[in-house]
Design brief:
single chain; Bromodomain-like; 2 strands; mainly alpha; two-stranded antiparallel ribbon; 6 helices
C-alpha cells in the first residue's frame, strides 16, 4: 500500500511539473506576448503526452509502462530542446519554414497572402529569457530533471520486483 501511495504521488508530481511547464509557456505566449517558433511548439508535445499517459495509467497497475513512456517522451523533448538551443546560439544553422516552395507569384495579392501565412517567429531568435536562459534552455533543465527522477523511480521499482 505504501508503494501505491508513493507511486500516486510520483504521478502527481510529474503531472504537476508538466502542467506548470505548459501553463508557463502559454502565459509567456499570450500574456507576455512572446510568440513561439515551430520548435517551441514542438517542445510542448512531450509534456502533453506525459500528462495524458499519466492520466490514462493513474489508476492502472502498468507502472513500468508509464515510467518507460515518460522517459521516452521527455528524452524526445530533451533532444528537441538541445537542437533548438544550438540553433538559438548559432552553433547549428537550420531553416525551418523560412523558404518558399513557389518562387513565382502571379500577383501582389498572392505574394501578400504567402507572406501573411509565413511564420513570423524564427527559431534562431530568443524572444524570451530569464536569468540568461532561453525557454529552450529552461526546457532542457526541466526535461533532464524529469528524466533523472523517473529513471531513479524506475530503478527503484525494478529492484522491488
Amino acid at each position: 500500500m505504501n508503494t501505491i501511495l508513493s507511486l500516486k504521488n510520483f504521478f502527481l508530481a510529474i503531472a504537476f511539473v508538466s502542467i506548470v511547464t505548459l501553463v508557463s509557456a502559454v502565459y509567456i505566449e499570450f500574456v507576455l506576448g512572446a510568440k513561439p517558433c515551430k520548435l517551441c511548439v514542438y517542445q510542448r508535445i512531450p509534456y502533453v503526452l506525459t500528462i495524458l499517459v499519466g492520466l490514462l495509467l493513474y489508476f492502472s497497475s502498468k507502472i513500468r509502462l508509464y515510467l518507460i513512456l515518460t522517459i521516452l517522451f521527455q528524452t524526445l523533448g530533451l533532444g528537441i530542446s538541445i537542437f533548438h538551443s544550438l540553433i538559438e546560439r548559432g552553433i547549428i544553422h537550420y531553416e525551418m519554414g523560412c523558404t518558399s516552395v513557389k518562387n513565382d507569384f502571379e500577383s501582389i495579392d498572392e505574394l501578400r497572402n504567402f507572406l501573411d501565412a509565413a511564420p513570423i517567429t524564427k527559431c534562431n531568435e530568443i524572444n524570451f529569457s530569464f536569468l540568461g536562459l532561453s525557454l529552450a534552455n529552461m526546457n532542457i533543465l526541466v526535461s533532464v530533471l524529469i528524466i533523472f527522477l523517473t529513471t531513479l523511480y524506475f530503478i527503484d521499482h525494478e529492484k522491488k520486483k
